[in-house]
TrEMBL record:
This is AAA family ATPase. It holds the Pfam family AAA_22. The lineage of its organism: Bacteria, Pseudomonadati, Pseudomonadota, Alphaproteobacteria, Rhodobacterales. It comes from the Bacteria. Residues 47-192 form the AAA+ ATPase domain. PANTHER family: GENERAL SECRETION PATHWAY PROTEIN A-RELATED (PTHR35894), PHOSPHORIBULOKINASE _ URIDINE KINASE FAMILY (PTHR35894:SF1). SMART domains: AAA.
Length: 302
């Protein structure tokens, strides 16, 4: 059996359903993901100066962006920046590069800003809108966020010449709501925060991926789903990781349906590092941390 098959053949699947590589064929839209996508669409169509999307690592933010980009036509010029850092001027250089505007790295800030402004006006005159997406925006400094806000001050009559979509982890929302960032917050016209899926949705998510892979959707018991939800807080990427290990364990034990005991074994063996990261991350906004993690934290304090 090759590495691609692993447990798939044992369960009668055509492929592994819980790999971490994004695959459009496995796309599952929960209610909140549909709402978040609607907010993104609204932000674009309404020419919102700033649209804010936040959520835990692995909550599906990148999937939302990928689907949004597929829907935009040639009238929208999109620039995408990931993990941008740097001081004044460096961020503007990131912006120009993302929009494919040639720039001399040694140029002064004033020169770069003038080039940026001229480009915005040219695009507007040609009937095109400019959308700048900043992924992992929580890594920006306060000064960086303020510099981005100032870019939205460029307008023509009633129209925004550039729209920003800020995407990041939960702390980004706190950064924007900081009293010192009041002017930035006032420019956020659309926002959505992705929470983890509830237990019912986790069950539907698991069944959906199993069926796409050629299964029945009943390869996990209800008790196993409950345990998975508890341990992952309903974060899609973590659900995938824990389901993958659970099916691997079930294959090894020659069990045809993953039960709560198997999920418990995976957790006890400490191979599910994603769940441990929830325990160790005090900034996590997960409201469903398992009793295991709460108990561990109490023991560590004692």
């Amino acid at each position: 059996m090759n590495s691609e098959e692993l447990y798939a053949g044992y369960f009668g699947l055509d492929e592994r359903p819980f790999t971490l590589v994004p695959d459009p064929s496995f796309l599952f839209w929960s209610g909140q993901h549909k709402r978040a996508h609607s907010i993104l669409e609204f932000g674009i169509m309404s020419r919102a100066p700033i649209t804010l999307i936040t959520g835990e690592i692995g909550s599906g933010k990148t999937t939302l962006l990928q689907n949004l980009l597929k829907q935009l036509d040639d009238t929208v010029n999109v620039g995408l920046i990931s993990n941008a850092q740097g001081g004044r001027g460096e961020l503007l250089q990131w912006v120009l590069n993302a929009l494919s505007v040639p720039v001399d790295p040694s140029a002064s800030y004033v020169t770069m800003f003038q080039k940026f402004q001229d480009f915005m006006i040219e695009e507007y005159a040609a009937g095109r809108r400019v959308v700048l997406i900043i992924d992992e925006a929580q890594n920006l400094s306060t000064e960086g966020l303020e510099e981005l806000r100032m870019l939205t001050n460029i307008n023509s009559n009633k129209d925004e010449l550039i729209q920003l979509i800020l995407v990041g982890q939960p702390e980004l929302k706190g950064m924007v709501l900081n009293p010192n960032m009041r002017q930035l917050a006032q420019r956020v016209a659309a926002s959505f925060h992705l929470n983890g899926m509830d237990e019912e949705t986790v069950g539907k998510y698991i069944a959906h991926r199993l069926k796409v892979a050629g299964g029945t959707g009943e390869e996990f018991s209800d008790e196993a789903v409950a345990k998975i939800h508890e341990a992952t807080c309903g974060i899609p990427r973590l659900v995938n990781q824990l389901c993958e290990f659970s099916m691997l364990y079930a294959w090894g034990e020659e069990v045809k349906q993953v039960n709560a005991g198997i999920v418990e074994d995976v957790l006890n063996d400490g191979v599910f590092f994603g769940g441990l990261s929830l325990k160790e991350d005090p900034s996590s906004d997960c409201l469903f941390l398992s009793q295991r993690y709460r108990a561990d934290a109490t023991e560590e304090k004692n």
